[in-house]
Amino acid sequence: MADHYDVLGVSRDATLDEIKKAYRKKARQLHPDVNPGEDAAEQFKLVTHAYDVLSDTEQRRRYDAGGDDFGGAGFGGFGDIFETFFGGAGGNRAGRPRSRRERGQDALVHVSLELGDVVFGAHRDIEVDTAVLCETCNGECTQPGTHPVTCDICHGTGHVQRQVRSLLGNVITQAPCGSCHGYGTIIPYPCDTCQGQGRVRSRRTVSIDVPAGVESGLRLQLPGSGEVGPAGGPNGDLYLQVEVQNHPIFSRDGDDLLATLEVSMTDAILGTTTTIEGLDGPVDLEIRPGVQSSDVLTMKGRGITPLRGSQRGDLRVGVQVVTPTKLDSAQRKLIEQFAAKAKSPGPKLSEFHQGLFSKLRDRFRGA
Q: How far is CA 72 from CA 58, 76, 88, 192, 316, in A?
């Protein structure tokens, strides 16, 4: 590693003003906008790093002392003993440098599903804006052909120590190195593609299989499908927030599907068969003669597959008998003849009910 004083062209006892003046002169000569050569760019980085070290009083003092000017290691007093047992130079308890590789952040994506998607589950290809591995440096953070260099301030430890005088003697404190930010190495030539991060922002497609039985508010976890970490660190997780859209005909009650079937008065009296279109295909229904409003027809196994199981729920169809509101003369005459033969006792008070829809709801719950 080149000597910082030689790089700036100043003596070892140069003042701060002399260092600043030398740096400005060198920077003007070597700046990439003025001198675009590759060698000039390298020299410019060396000059800048030398100035960063020598313009800082504490870093310069440590540099001049060889990075280890923390006092003797002998037991000349209580302060020396304190240093040895609590992180002093004699104890050599410096922590390890930080790793540039870190786990990536988790990501949250909202997934909108139709009610039919949750009967058997669904497959989705989702576009996600995330961080992916830099293909230029493959997560190394450096220009191809270059490598990080050991920090000449902390000598690769990632930490610097400071001697503080206290009532107990000379106490040694430890802090992350300000030059390498605790990594122990410096990247002189960062990758141009990722700016030394080892990852770039990109849009990628994630294929997911949504299981049957999910419902709104459920959050699914896809381990390792989140953002790649700095310096090619492991991926975080991807979370899917599920939202199931309302259906115009069917609603959900647990693993059961609910629907309402309008039946004409004549079909309710005589009975009939019909076919309705379910979420998973046609469903045949048999309406017995004399069916009443709020009666529930149940089709076993035509509901939703549960999230953790295989036994499907049921399809429950509530009957609503529709009374005609407009009759022509012939129809009215037939109804009058039917009423005369039926000898109906006429309207009368009966047990209190909450209304058709409340009754239908209660039947649904008790079916």
A: 19, 9, 10, 45, 87
pLDDT above 70 as % of the chain: 81
The DSSP output letter for 248 is S
pLDDT tens digits, one per residue of 114-127? 999 999 889 989 89
Residues 6+ apart with CB under 8 A from 68: 89
- Token digits of residue 363: 């039947």
The Cβ-side half-sphere exposure at 199, using a 13 Å CA radius, reads: 23
| pLDDT tens digits, one per residue of 268-310 | 999 999 999 998 899 999 999 999 998 999 999 999 999 888 8
CA angle 197, 202, 208 (to 5 degrees): 120
Question: CATH topology for 251-366?
Answer: HSP40/DNAj peptide-binding domain (2.60.260)
Helix (H, G, I), strand (E, B) or coil at 80: helix
347: which residues sit within 8 A by CB, 6+ positions away? none
Judging by beta carbons within 10 Å of its beta carbon (0-12, 13-18, 19+), is residue 365 exposed, middle or buried?
A: exposed
Query: Residue 89 in contact with residue 160, Cβ under 8 Å?
Result: no
**Residue ranges per domain, the chain?**
251-366
Question: Would you give the distance in Å from CA 293 to the centre of its chain?
Answer: 49
